[in-house]
């Protein structure tokens, strides 16, 4: 018998579901009830005609646990499709954050300079604060937020990861 | 084609009739009054009035498991629905098809903490295969049909349909069952032929193989059991069954090793531990079966046939998975085996059986019946001998009596043994027996019970009286919650904390009060006569069978131990068998 690797891995899973009442509760309840991790979760309707929503979950676990998560998700009646973007070929993933930084003087200038380097946009500005919008991979957002900490970081709002497979095919 | 409009309540009943429903187990209340009013006006659906909603679900389970049909439950909102929750989870754990209709407060009151309001879909979401809250009367028929489809296909399970009262009284359009197709739910029935080919090749090459069969064989229907029997006999491999799988393969067949697991036979567990090929058919590597997981069958190649992909690689990593309905997969396995003209490894297999016979020589179910005090094992053996040639169904409660019944009562065909395996619900047996008796009015239906479990749904004796159901309740009365007492003896220094059944009712008088026959067996020489009287009675009967209170259920794999570390009997009760890790296990 081949022993399963015990390494904890992070996987991004995309789930296509019927957009009906309670469907998100079903998915979240499955994770909490069975003790699986959710590192981030996003959901929105993506097909208004077919009334389908797409849920993107970033989760972590051993390979056996990840396989179990996917099997459990597929077992939910309103679930159409489950795709493990981490292993099913190349994919693109993005996250958006709104980052509020308050400060004056040199700190204010420095925050603007770093925002420029990260291609973050100031979407709100007062005399002593900015709200930056930044889009990118999770670790890029983490790095940006980390750099803003000494410069007057006061608030962060993140969307969580959305992801899609590269190439011409749908989920 | 003109579209008929009718009230939501009428739509529900019409849909039930079109689904072939004959019996509903239920209890009325404010939110479902429109449905009860419609029930009053018709004759096609029979309603069985239970005395507690939990019993309604167990009765529906008994009906479903003994007929292969979907069991139907009707309860009111709030407490009606919450009382049903235990039954629903029981049905989910044991994969029993049940549709449970629950009343709900009118839609405009949902979320207002209205009288008898409960978030039924929220509460039952983790206890059901699927659930629905119907907010549009035109969806009623569609949802009911879909609920039946989801409940009975794939891995069966309970489905709740929550029906607000305003939906039941407003008018909508009916659609028939044929028009209902689910958008995404498509259970896989046929197994992958490539995998099946690999499986039979492994079987032909095996030296020490074993079939490990579970409730999936029973759930798949009678054909699955016949095909399994055919395949087992074609190969001559030994076959062990889980608690849920009993009857899936004939219990008295020489190739049967009996039940495996915590209270399974020594030969079954040793063979599982020592095998080189395990063919798991419709079982799920439950913790009661595997024992310590890292010591489970260490040297075997494992094949897993299951209709539910989430059962594969959940507890135990397997080498070859075949997803599909057991009957279809077994049929294909037999075909491929024959087409390729495969043969088993006769010499190795003979040597394997020699080993197995040695393990069987331990006579692990041995007990000593001496003196006048009835041993519980003896009581089950006599019950078996005196009922095995009849058309008998056995249900149980949960505990020692359940394990003794599983060890000593042999089932030759599926659907005759009904027990709460996954959830372990005390109070299951009596209402389940009620459901069986409704479906099989002329059969002998016996609930093997303990004196503690039986009190958990004892009120259903009144239902038996109302419908003249001649269910027999055979209580192994040892005056303890026996399994709790046994664990306290083995694991907690014989400190019997709250496990003594104090202030027991007089079961004979209790039977009388419910209009049933009460019988008592105190001594060994009374036993056969009491069982004979019980069988002969055309009324419901409670037998208070007084058994040895100190008897423990052996053999036993202590928690945290492996298959080859069984306790065979009281003499094996040595300290230190249970590790610290094992102490925390249930």
Record keyword descriptors for this entry.
heterodimer; A: 171 residues; alpha+beta; five-stranded antiparallel sheet; elongated; B: 586 residues; alpha/beta; 20 strands; 37% helix
Overall description:
The complex is a heterodimer of chains A (171) and B (586). Chain A has 171 residues and is of the alpha+beta class. Chain A has 4 helices and 9 strands, in the order βαββαββαββαββ. Chain A starts with 8 loop residues before the first strand and ends in a 6-residue tail after the last strand. The model of chain A has no long low-confidence stretch (mean pLDDT 95). Chain B contains 22 helices and 20 strands. Chain B starts with a strand and ends with a helix. With 586 residues, chain B is an alpha/beta fold. In chain B, strands 3-2-4-5-7-6 form a 6-stranded parallel sheet, with helices on both faces. Chain B has a 6-stranded parallel sheet with strand order 11-10-9-12-13-14, with helices on both faces. A 6-stranded parallel sheet of chain B has the order 16-15-17-18-20-19, sandwiched between helices. The longest helix of chain B is centred in the N-terminal third of the chain and has 15 residues, at 53-67. The A-B interface holds A 1-4, 18, 21-22, 25-26, 29, 33, 64, 67-68, 71-72, 74-80 and B 121-122, 125-126, 129-131, 133, 135, 150, 182-185, 298, 300-302, 308-310, 312-314, 317, 319.
SSE map:
The complex is a heterodimer of chains A (171) and B (586).
Chain A: E1 9-18, H1 23-33, E2 40-47, E3 52-61, H2 63-75, E4 79-84, E5 91-102, H3 105-117, E6 121-126, E7 129-136, H4 138-148, E8 153-158, E9 162-165
Antiparallel strand pairs in A: 1-3, 1-4, 2-3, 5-7, 5-8, 5-9, 6-7
Chain B: E1 5-7, H1 8-18, E2 23-26, H2 33-40, E3 46-49, H3 53-67, E4 71-75, H4 79-93, E5 98-104, H5 120-124, E6 130-133, H6 140-152, E7 158-164, H7 165-169, E8 171-173, H8 193-205, E9 209-213, H9 215-219, H10 222-235, E10 239-241, E11 256-259, H11 266-274, E12 277-281, H12 287-290, E13 301-306, E14 320-323, H13 326-339, H14 346-360, H15 376-387, E15 392-396, H16 400-408, E16 417-418, H17 429-439, E17 444-450, H18 461-466, E18 472-477, H19 482-491, H20 507-513, E19 517-521, H21 524-536, E20 541-546, H22 580-583
Parallel strand pairs in B: 2-3, 2-4, 4-5, 5-7, 6-7, 9-10, 9-12, 10-11, 12-13, 13-14, 15-16, 15-17, 17-18, 18-20, 19-20
Antiparallel strand pairs in B: 1-8
Helix pairs in contact in B: 1-2, 1-6, 3-4, 3-17, 8-13, 10-13, 11-14, 15-16, 15-21
């Amino acid at each position: 018998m081949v022993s399963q690797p015990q390494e904890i891995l992070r996987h991004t899973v995309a789930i296509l579901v019927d957009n009906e009442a309670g469907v998100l509760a079903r998915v979240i309840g499955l994770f909490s009830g069975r003790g699986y991790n959710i590192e981030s979760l996003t959901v929105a309707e993506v097909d208004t005609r077919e009334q389908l929503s797409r849920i993107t979950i970033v989760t972590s676990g051993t390979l056996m646990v990840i396989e179990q998560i996917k099997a459990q998700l597929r077992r939910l009646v309103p679930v159409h499709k489950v795709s493990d973007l981490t292993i099913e070929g190349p994919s693109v993933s993005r996250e958006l954050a709104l980052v509020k930084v308050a400060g004056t003087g040199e700190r204010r200038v420095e925050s603007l300079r770093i925002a420029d380097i990260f291609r973050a946009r100031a979407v709100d500005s007062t005399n002593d604060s900015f709200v930056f919008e930044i889009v990118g991979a999770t670790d890029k957002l983490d790095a940006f937020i980390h750099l803003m900490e000494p410069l007057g970081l006061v608030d962060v709002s993140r969307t969580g990861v959305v992801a899609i497979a590269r190439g011409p095919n749908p989920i | 084609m003109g579209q008929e409009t009718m009230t939501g309540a009428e739509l529900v009943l019409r849909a039930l009739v079109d689904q072939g429903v004959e019996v509903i187990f239920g209890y009325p209340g404010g939110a479902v009054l429109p449905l009860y009013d419609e029930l009053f006006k018709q004759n096609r659906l029979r309603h069985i009035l239970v005395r507690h909603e939990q019993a309604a679900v167990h009765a529906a389970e008994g009906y479903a498991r003994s007929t292969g049909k979907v069991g139907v439950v009707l309860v009111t909102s709030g407490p009606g629905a919450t009382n049903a929750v235990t039954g629903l989870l029981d049905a989910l754990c044991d994969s029993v098809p049940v549709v449970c209709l629950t009343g709900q407060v009118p839609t405009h009151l949902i979320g207002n903490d209205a009288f008898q309001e409960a978030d039924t879909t929220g509460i039952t979401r983790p206890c059901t295969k699927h659930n629905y809250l119907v907010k549009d009367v035109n969806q009623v028929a569609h949802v009911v049909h879909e609920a039946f489809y989801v409940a009975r296909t794939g891995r069966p399970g309970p489905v709740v349909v929550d029906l607000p009262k305003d939906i039941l009284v407003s008018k909508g359009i009916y659609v028939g069952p044929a028009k209902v197709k689910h958008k995404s739910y498509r259970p896989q029935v046929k197994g992958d032929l490539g995998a099946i080919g690999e499986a039979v090749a492994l079987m032909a090459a095996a030296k020490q193989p074993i079939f490990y069969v579970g409730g999936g064989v029973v759930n798949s229907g009678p054909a699955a059991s016949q095909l399994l029997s055919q395949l087992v006999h074609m190969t001559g491999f030994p076959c062990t069954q889980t608690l849920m799988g009993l009857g899936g393969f004939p219990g008295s067949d020489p190739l049967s090793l009996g039940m495996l697991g915590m209270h399974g036979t020594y030969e079954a567990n040793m063979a599982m531990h020592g095998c080189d090929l395990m063919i798991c058919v419709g079982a799920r590597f439950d913790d009661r079966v595997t024992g310590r997981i890292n010591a489970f069958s260490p040297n075997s190649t494992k094949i897993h046939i299951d209709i539910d992909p989430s059962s594969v690689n959940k507890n135990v990593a397997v080498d070859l998975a075949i997803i599909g309905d057991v009957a279809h997969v077994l049929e294909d396995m037999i075909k491929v085996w024959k087409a390729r003209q495969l043969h088993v490894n006769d010499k190795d297999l003979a040597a394997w059986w020699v080993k197995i016979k040695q393990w069987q020589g331990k006579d692990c179910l041995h007990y000593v019946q001496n003196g006048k005090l009835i041993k519980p094992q003896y009581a089950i053996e006599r019950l078996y001998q005196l009922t095995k040639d009849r058309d008998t169904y056995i249900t149980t409660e949960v505990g020692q009596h359940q394990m003794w019944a599983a060890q000593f009562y042999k089932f030759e065909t599926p659907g005759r043994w009904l027990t709460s395996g996954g959830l372990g619900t005390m109070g299951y047996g009596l209402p389940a027996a009620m459901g069986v008796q409704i479906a099989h009015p002329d059969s002998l239906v016996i609930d093997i019970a303990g004196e503690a479990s039986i009190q958990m749904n004892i009120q259903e004796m009144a239902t038996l009286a109302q419908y003249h159901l001649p269910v027999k309740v055979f209580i192994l009365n040892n005056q303890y919650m026996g399994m709790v007492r046994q664990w306290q003896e083995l694991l907690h220094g014989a400190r019997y904390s709250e496990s003594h059944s104090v202030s027991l009712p007089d079961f004979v008088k209790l039977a009388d009060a419910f209009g049933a026959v009460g019988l008592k067996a105190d001594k060994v020489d009374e036993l056969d006569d009491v069982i004979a009287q019980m069988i002969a009675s055309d009324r419901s009967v409670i037998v208070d069978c007084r058994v040895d209170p100190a008897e423990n259920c052996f053999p036993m794999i202590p928690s945290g131990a492996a298959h080859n570390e069984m306790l065979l009997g009281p003499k094996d009760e040595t300290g230190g068998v249970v590790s610290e890790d094992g102490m925390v296990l249930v």
